[in-house]
Design a protein that fits this description.
Radius of gyration: 25 Å
Strand order of the largest sheet: 3-9-10-16-13-12-11
Helix content: 25-40%
Strand content: 25-35%
Largest sheet: 7 strands, mixed
CATH architecture of the largest domain: 2-Layer Sandwich
Oligomer: single chain
Structural class: alpha+beta
Bound molecules: glycyl-adenosine-5'-phosphate
Number of helices: 13
Number of strands: 23
CATH topology of the largest domain: BirA Bifunctional Protein, domain 2
Distance between the termini: 42 Å
CATH class of the largest domain: Alpha Beta
């Protein structure tokens, strides 16, 4: 059971439910252990985060190609990668309350019988730790025996490694170059929790950069910088980010060097993304297990070798949680509380709300026309119900960066007000110039 979340998390979780960002999966049946569904605003936000990552990592570069590999892979992939033998966490049970904990996270969780204390503080009667493999197993085909076991992938990376030559040949890339992928991954976490921070089904945004082994330190440092800048471009406050190096006893089985980019969540500093020097561990393992030559012929160096890999591995759901936490603000405006989600306009789920000031005098008709025009370029929302102040507040909570209001002056001079979410300032803008002005502000 996860540590009880603090006040801010409670308010955020309730806003997510109320406004349709994220809600528990199968809620009418009581939910299912740390599985979540994304609602209308959540799905737009998630899509925008993925697009931002994809654009940064592939479209704006010439040296990274994309793929979309299958979730189910040959079981030998997971033997070669070391996941069958080594993708385990130590697990303990409490003999009294029957709760199950990760043995290495006992100070981070609460005892269900005494939620104010951790199992250690509560002197729980714990079993000896035993290793638990985090991969979900299922069976392929109608016969459920050992020969038909397959796994839901616990990382998207392996789909990239096994396709190294399939991508290399048609793309005609040369080392150094990368392969990027966004996709679902599954881990049977012993203690998921903190809302969508650690779940059993999640999406990863991973990039594997193939390099000459002699250049691993250079590219490792390069990718640390790139990925740091990415979070700043995403609009995350820099003071909430830090690097955290993995010590020798913390390194994953495949890594020579690893660093996390961490974010300061309300429940502490936690990993947001991992950057790893995976050496030639994976390609070598697949070469040995499959018998296929995974080496690369470098025509400039006149050398055949197994490339090293620098990996950047981010969780999409975890990025979304970071964006939500980082954007959440409570402010006092004219004696009233306003909740505002200050998303970077680039990733905001709705870009523009179009509002007639009142529901008469031809204003709704003009507003509809503007809405129908703007929605060709932006995700827009039309709202004519209730006082305009209330409508602005609803859009602030949704994180909509621009509000276009049609008022009495519109008919006279074909202008509207353009309201900015964070400053609440309003400019008068010609209807004909609206689209370009908003486009400029979204750059
Ligand atoms: N391919 C390397 C790899 O998977 P990882 O550090 O285990 O490395 C990378 O995971 C990222 O995936 C994490 O930084 C996190 O953002 C995300 N992630 C991992 N497990 C997760 C979980 N159970 N729930 C949500 N996101 C998770």
């Amino acid at each position: 059971m996860a540590k009880t979340s603090n006040d801010l998390m409670d308010r955020l979780v309730s806003l997510c439910k109320r406004r349709g960002f994220v809600f528990p999966s199968s809620e009418i049946y009581g939910g299912l252990g740390s599985c979540y569904d994304y609602g209308p605003l959540g799905v737009e936000l998630k899509r925008n985060i993925k697009d931002f990552w994809w654009t940064t990592m592939t479209r704006k570069r010439d040296d990274i190609e994309g793929i979309d590999a299958a979730i189910l892979m040959h079981p030998k992939v997971w033997e070669a990668s070391g996941h069958v033998a080594g993708f385990t966490d130590p697990m303990v049970d409490c003999r009294t309350c029957k709760a199950r904990f990760r043995a290495d996270q006992l100070d981070e969780v609460r005892c269900p019988n005494k939620p104010s204390k951790s199992p250690i503080e509560n002197n729980c009667d714990l079993t000896e730790p035993r290793m638990f493999n985090l991969m979900f197993r299922t069976f392929m085909g109608p016969v459920e025996d050992d020969s038909s076991v397959v796994y839901l992938r616990p990382e998207t990376a392996q789909g990239i490694y096994v396709n190294f030559h399939n991508v290399l040949q048609p793309s005609r890339q040369k080392i150094p170059f990368g392969i990027a992928q966004i996709g679902k991954a599954f881990r049977n976490e012993i203690t998921p929790g903190n809302f969508i921070f650690r779940t059993r089904e999640f999406e990863q945004m991973e990039m594997q950069f193939f390099i000459h082994p002699s250049e691993d330190d250079k590219w490792y440092e390069y990718w640390k910088e790139q990925r740091w800048q990415y979070y700043l471009d995403l609009g995350i406050r820099e003071e909430k980010l830090r690097f955290e190096d993995h010590g020798p006893d913390e390194l994953a089985h495949y890594a020579k060097k690893a660093v996390d980019i961490e974010y300061e969540f309300p429940f502490g500093w936690k990993e947001l993304e991992g950057i790893h020097n995976r050496t030639d561990y994976d390609l070598k393992a697949h070469m040995e297990t499959s018998g296929k030559d995974m080496r690369y012929f470098d025509d400039q160096r006149k050398e055949k070798y197994l490339p090293y890999i620098i990996e950047t591995s981010a969780g999409c759901d975890r990025t979304l949680l970071t964006v939500l936490v980082d954007a959440y603000r409570e402010e006092e405006v004219k004696g009233e509380k306003r909740v505002v989600m200050s998303f970077s306009p680039r990733i905001a789920p709705i870009k523009v709300a179009v509002l007639p000031l009142v529901k008469k005098d031809g204003m709704p008709e003009i507003a509809r026309e503007i809405y129908n025009d703007l929605k060709k370029n932006f995700k827009c929302f039309y709202d004519e119900s209730g006082a305009v102040g209330r409508r602005y507040r609803r859009q602030d909570e949704a994180g909509t960066p621009f509000g276009v209001t049609v008022d009495g002056q519109t008919k006279e001079d074909e202008t509207v007000t353009l309201r900015h979410r964070d400053s609440m300032e309003q400019d008068r803008v010609k209807i004909a110039e609206l689209k370009n002005k908003i486009l400029r502000e979204l750059q």
